[in-house]
Amino acid sequence: MNYLAHLHIAKHCNSQLMGNLMADFVRGKPDGKFLPETTQAIYLHRFVDRFVDSHEAIKPCRALFPKHLYRFSAIALDMFWDHALVHHWDAFNDVRFDEFIARAETDCRTVTQQEPNPLPEKYLFLSDKMWREGWIPSYADINTLPFALQRMSARSPRMGPLAETAETLVAHRQILLDAFPSIYKDVLSAARDFKHQP
Predict the structure, then answer these.
(1) How does pLDDT run across 115-158, given as a tens digit for each residue?
(2) How far is CA 52 from CA 105, 135, 192, in A?
(3) In the chain, beta strands by DSSP E
């Protein structure tokens, strides 16, 4: 799951949005480095990532990718699931999408400013850029994904092939959209039951 899904799952679980958004930028155990609610949110994000990666319904989705791109398929699907969540938004929400995004941005920016402990510089830079440039709303358009994946692939030479995965996402969009609701329902249910034990 990507930015939108992690924010939505956090809201669904009454978890801190900022910590869920920041989790990919935190290495190792977060205990003692941040406020307890931030730490718990990071663990929720990590749990969701593990749960999705091991979900049985993900296997046939990853099998849609050419063999040479298989190892990049999980990252590509994470991006696609945000597109799918926007597409299926009304099935999982009573709040309008634009309202949710506006509230999430306000909440994340406020909590980021209030966290007394140092936050990862990469998170601070990318989150500000993400909100300013409207990355999340742009995921509603499938044609945004090739650009987003190209941007991610440029981060390092080994990530180069990630850009090629966009073709599979676009070609199999309907199959993946149809697979999403049942996967996401399981994710929401598991996330609600999750509680990290120190």
Answers:
(1) 899 999 999 999 999 999 999 999 899 988 888 888 888 877 78
(2) 25, 22, 14
(3) none
3-state helix, strand, coil in the chain (%, to 5): 75, 0, 25
What are the backbone dihedrals phi and psi of residue 34, each rounded to the nearest 5 degrees, phi first?
Answer: -140, 175
Residue 64: closest CA among 160, 165, 161, 146: 165
Of 173, 163, 23, the C-alpha closest to 86 is 173
b/e map of 166-185 (b: 16 or more CB within 10 Å)? bebbeeebeebeebbeebbe
Conformational region of residue 191, where left means phi above 0, alpha means psi within -120 to 50, and beta covers everything else: alpha
Q: Closest Cα to residue 52, out of 194, 154, 196, 162?
A: 194
Indicate the SS3 state at residue 171.
helix
